[in-house]
Amino acid sequence: xxxxxxxxxxxxxxxxxxxxxxxxxxxxxxxxxxxxxxxxxxxxxxxxxxxxxxxxxxxxxxxxxxxxxxxxxxxxxxxxxxxxxxxxxxxxxxxxxxxxxxxxxxxxxxxxxxxxxxxxxxx
Length: 123
Fold this sequence. Notes:
Layout: E1 5-10, E2 15-20, E3 38-41, E4 51-55, E5 62-67, E6 81-82, E7 92-103, E8 110-111, E9 114-120
Antiparallel strand pairs: 1-2, 3-4, 4-6, 5-7, 7-8, 7-9
């Protein structure tokens, strides 16, 4: 026979509270706040060449939205590729790429850091 316990912390009293769950079908899910993280490759980025974004976010049951910072449509794919066509010209243009992750279990939990991505222009 299994016994399910709910353990919570009473932060005001500074003690743990242990409760026995009545339903044998209850589940206990501990969820951290979502944390948005991503990498990209290649390391040397050129306009008109695809850049692969790899989502390394942590959390449970997440949705994703990647804003490439170049006025193109946002992506909801987990690991999208993107071409920065607006960087064509001379010099280097920097884009602020922002990944937003939301918890489907608690929509109020959101994390959305931005990273600067320099892209060398092509002529």
